[in-house]
Amino acid sequence: MRDATHDVPALGRRAFLKHSGALGAAAAVSASLAACSAGPESTNDTGGGAGGPNRTLTAVIGYGNDGSWDPTQTASAFCMAANNHIYEGLLDTDPISREPYAALATRVPADPNATTWRFALREGASFHDGKPVTVDDVVFVFDRILDPKTQTLAKGFFAPWLKEVRKVDRQTVELVLKFPFPDGLSRLTLAKVMPKHVFSEPGGWEDAIKGTAIGSGPYRQTAHHPKSNTTFEAYAGYNGPRRAAFRKMNWLTIVDAAPRVARISGASAGAQISDNIPYANIGQLESGGLTVAGGAGMNNLFLMFNTEHKPFDDVRVRQALHYAIDTEKMVEVALKGHGTPSSSFLNEANPAYRRAKTVYDHDPDRAKALLKEAGVSGLRIDILAVNVSWIVDCLPTIKSSWDAIGVRTTLSPQETTAVFTKMDQKQDYQVVAAASNPNQFGLDADLIMHYNYGPTNLWMQYTRWARDPVARQLFKDMDRATREPDPDRKKAMIQDYVDVVAEQAVLYPVVHNELMTAWDDRLLTGIRAQPYPGINLLQAKWA
């Protein structure tokens, strides 16, 4: 995940994996899967009555709110979604198209290919404690991100192409690039501007991790109860482009599917919107008058192999196990039709997508032949899996498919924290099945691929593959593609190295699926289902 190759910091590793929306409901790495109660009624009270403009919007988020809230570090689905309402970048992006728009800056640079971008800050912008936003705050955040001694998740999104950020005058900041990098404009939303006077204090970053959130966005955080709920209210001092439409918001964290669905359904529904809707409940919610819509993107079930554990060091074995899986059955039975078998590392809607040269269509005979060619027989596999509900639904198809080619398979779904703590501790494992969705960070393929592959990133540490000669050449090809100025040539270079990733199948998706959001359109307008965890209410309002 980050450094120049997207290396996740060792210090934040466990918190990252515990709470990330990238796995388990998302890359790396899932939002917190600890059983979360709906919280005490006093904190879940929607308030304000059933009607009126001052009533509280109540949302249900299917991921934990007890991950890191530090915007430079977090991959938590809940915390990232909340931070998009609390903080601003110089530029932010549309939640669906990911097109950048001016947030704290007054405009988007006219020349995306320039190697210097100059931004004027919005006059009158202030943080939620009333202090003005300054250029020093912007430089403070970027200095942290680019500091070679400080490992953050955001570092990998910026350090490969951003040389420095410097103050020009009281209202102007300048970004100096190492080479032209147009994709960097959309990535600026990942550098949320934070008040230096708060987070530079001793213990400031630790407070950010624990839930202290003070930004300049349209909503300010008013209370935070880990594993229960987080509340917000419109910030009266906000003068930016996405004004708050709700006087108050209450976001409940309910990881378990049944109570999450119950909270949004029925005549006494206590919430107006929920993400992470199980496929089995779509019909029930629609018949109850709710709108349910999906967002198809990078969300995927992937397999990750320990290449130091024989026979998974043999590419033929990894390929055989992928060919053996009946992905069409998995889509039909487990995903209720809301998915597609993987035909590349990238999903089909990604602008850089090209069908990979190696596509793992269901071919049990080829799987058997590859295992025989590799000299493997009597293989027994224990699949270490995260216990995200839709992943658990998919596991029986993997087991039956592998059993059918003579691979004795057992399933071991566990809390995400348990799964990745074992790998943090460098315990032995064979195969991990989990979920990933790097789309919460963006759409550009360079970001997505570096998020998953790179010589020092966390995933490659888990796979123990980075020293392989094929891996070393892959990393060189990836770095060359990052620096390629011609967009068509860059796209082709990415597609070519994705073919290598597909062939090697070290960490590779089995299926891509839709994420479902449900809301009451009699009460809310402007909702768009997004293809990554969480919700975005910056353009929503009461109906």
From TrEMBL:
GO terms for cellular component: ATP-binding cassette (ABC) transporter complex; periplasmic space. It is a lipid-anchor. One of its GO terms (biological process) is peptide transport. Keywords: Signal. It is found in: Cell membrane. One of its GO terms (molecular function) is peptide transmembrane transporter activity. It holds the Pfam family SBP_bac_5. Its main location: membrane. It comes from the Bacteria. Residues 99-451 form the Solute-binding protein family domain. SUPFAM superfamilies: Periplasmic binding protein-like II. InterPro entries: Peptide/Ni-bd, SBP_5, SBP_5_CS, SBP_5_dom, TAT_signal. Residues 1-34 form the signal peptide. Transmembrane segments: none annotated. The keyword Signal applies. Belongs to the bacterial solute-binding protein 5 family. This is ABC transporter substrate-binding protein.
